[in-house]
Amino acid sequence: MFEQPALKTLGREVARVGRLRAALGLLGWDQETMMPKAGGSQRAAVIGDLTEVAHRMATSPELGDQLAAAEEEASQATDSKAGAFVREVRRGYDRSCKVPAALAEEIARTASETQATWAEARREDDFPRFQPFLEKLLALKCQEAEAIGGDAPLYDTMLDAYEPHCTAERVQSLVDEVKPRLVRLVQEFAPKSAKTPPLQGGFSVEAQRDFGLSVIKRMGFDFDRGRVDLSTHPFCSGMNANDVRLTTRYSEDSLESLFTLVHEAGHGLYEQGLDPEWAGTPLGASVSLGIHESQSRLWENLVARGSSFWSHFLPSLKESFPGRFEGVELPEVLRMMNRVEPSLIRVEADEVTYNLHVMLRFELEMDLVNGRVAVGDLPGVWRARMKEYLGVEPPTDREGVLQDIHWSFGAFGYFPTYFLGNLFSAQFYEAASKAMPDLEAQIARGELLPLREWLQENIHRHGSRYPALELCERVTGKPLEASLFGDYLESKLTTLYGAS
Ligand code: ZN
Q: How many CB atoms lie within 10 A of CB 28?
């Protein structure tokens, strides 16, 4: 913590709010994993009350005064940590204070109604029922963005909630650069990978659990500072670096749970790698959802779907599932794990097509916010663009525009972080490979700790000290480049399936 008195006071107060939010995170984790079914309504009341207390603390005029005094001190400080600290506290404080209480309340209420309506509308495949709720929520979120950002483009302010300091223009230029290449990769490799059968059926849950846990232990996930439980939708929730909760789910149908667990453990390693001295403050918190996602994707896709990894782990995979991989050798296993297949549902999509799903959502959000597409036109535009990008068209809205939960609770600006995460992951992995020429050989020996240490040293321990795009530049020596991700995919797929 800081020596200067105002910075020290601010640090202490901000950490108190942070601890309260960690308690809220724990209540949320419990709700998804342990809470008895009947506990729901009381739990919602507790969460509502505590959220209000945290909000009051985070927006109090006293905190505003402490922040102003700390900003004064930070401007004199020689250490850039102080500047980064007040920059991020100011960002959060202004975002919370600038929204009038009545508007914040109306958004919370409308979001909860809209989410409930979305669940019904999705079940019944009834978009018109959802439409007026989404229209209202979108209008409110635009009002909120205007209150926070003033003259800034509305979408930039929405994006800033998840990917601070990034702009729609930057995302758009990255999308424009990589999209045509992804469309081409899908056209080339989907027919080729259709010849390989998917990994389906015959994976006992117990063996999956044992195998998955042994893998994340090798990655360095510390079970004295974290745990793994079951939930319907897998997630990672970090109270602080010493208490990180992962969840996963299992199905006998596929090995997806392995990749899900590795993905969540990638998030978990980021949380465990944060500096505990700064717990509850921006310097001890993840910098953006894009960087968070880069850590999960790096482990899930670049490591755990790669040939080095499986050249070590395939024998133990075969032992875990006797008979399941008989006569199947490494190249075929890798093809099974890296199939490219256009599909309707984002969360089931492969590494290549996933990005096109996300780009479609980003572009539609921009169009909605900028008034180029009306909410009522979404289903039709969705179908047309799916056809254009992926060559498939959803027969129902349930498999189309109604599939994701995000818009129903007002999370506009969230989707680009998935795509940014993929771009960051390829660029970080390239930098790690340069820094550690032995990296592939280490992974092929099942030694995963050196990579985790590199990530911790270069990314995790900084918390939010550097904005995401600046962090990327510091770590990799160059600005975020979309082409690296395209290069990585193309080279991997060409190796697996052959050039055309
Ligand atoms: Zn994730």
A: 16
